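To whoever picks this up:

The parser on our side crashed when reading a file containing two proteins. I've narrowed it down to the boundary between the first structure block and the second sequence. Both blocks are reproduced below exactly, byte for byte. First block:
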Amino acid sequence: MYPTFFDVLTTRADARARAAEQAGAVLFVTVLTAIAAQITIPLPFTPVPFTFQPMVVLVGAAALGSRLGMMSQILYLAIGLAGAPVFAASPALPQGVARLLGPTGGYLMSYPFAAFVAGYLAERGFDRRYLSFLLAMLSGLAVVFAGGVAWLALLLRSVGAALTAGFLPFVLADLAKLIVAASVMPALWRITGRTFPKI
């Protein structure tokens, strides 16, 4: 298992200092996720808005690793469930628990699992090269779409309708975002001058 980018940046041996750094990093990615949720583009033909959250979730998790990446998204959901305005704006649903019961609930609930997958692959060196990191991010995105479409299928009682509302309008745009974002972690690793592992 390879060190994550966060591991490389934080080398303190003191347990308390290390725990504080981990908490700060988790909170930082949580805040970035909440900010990304506010950059939304409502689409008239689907109740699911276009956001930049998946990209932030996956890149953040790759930097933190599986455990901390997952924790950042659990914290994000917990803050949202408490009623803080961290979820994407919606004219139909209020912030809080009701949001998880709505059409975007499956996507939101999938974030911790998608973060774990992206972080897990990063811990195995997938974030060091462009193509392997793109694969890691695609794996995480697949988890997001699986959760989101499955939840929509339950609400709409139709897999076809769920794919039409929650997958087809977004897949190309999300792939384009990942193609761009996949350069982030390899670039950061080059800046550190660390040796790239062979995968």
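<<boundary where parser fails>>
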Amino acid sequence: MRRRIVLAILLIVIGFFVMSAIFAPLLAPYSPEQQNLCQGLSGPSKTHWLGQDKLGRDVLSQMIFGARVSLLVGLSVVLISLLVGFSIGALSGVFGGVVDQFIMRIIDLLMAFPGILLAIALAAVLGPGIRNVIFALSLLGWVGYARLVRGQVLVEREKPYFESARALGAGWLRIIFRHLVPNLAGPVLVQATFGIAGAILAEASLSFLGLGTQKIPSFGSILAHGINFLRTAPHLTIFPGLAVFILVISFNILGDFLADALRVEEKK
């Protein structure tokens, strides 16, 4: 019962952020760009629940639109990385031999690069923007999925159903989509959940450095604007920082729940 309550809370929290991102124009009490210089750096009040920044913009409205940026980047990076990583990992595991060795050596080479540093370099070269951030984070994001899928495929190849499918003349594409995809859905879903949390945190880091989107406020950019007013207006860093923390920890704990459920299912 305790685990179910925690899981329900996690789903409510994630659902709250998702709904805020989808209906941001309807839920935001003000435009994120609406300024009121006379009330700059004002703290939380009845009219501005989370306060205002140095230009008098409503922090709550900016954070609602910031949830849209974070979830868009997180889901896009995971989707792209998952599609590329699953395809390459399945190809490596199914064919094996020289193909497997070639692909794995490339993956080992790519894993030698620090992902966040490469993303910072690419975002700096390509310029700020959501598309460039997604590209920079996806460039190495698929590597973990490829290694996971390849390892799982090597395990599945030793099972009777795989050999039976090959003996009956099933093609590789049929085996992959008919048999491997359903059996690998659990581990890949767990990895994707952790991947969303990592992508959200990476996007916040890039936006904090000024390499994220400049047209729409994000959690990282709000933090960057408020860091200079940490003593006089701590609400500019506390609230977006809490939002990133809650969103990332929710996806991480959700991933733990899925991993535990998967282990229980395997034991059955």
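After patching the parser it read the second block fine. The CA atoms of residues 14 and 247 lie 7 Å apart. The radius of gyration is 22 Å.
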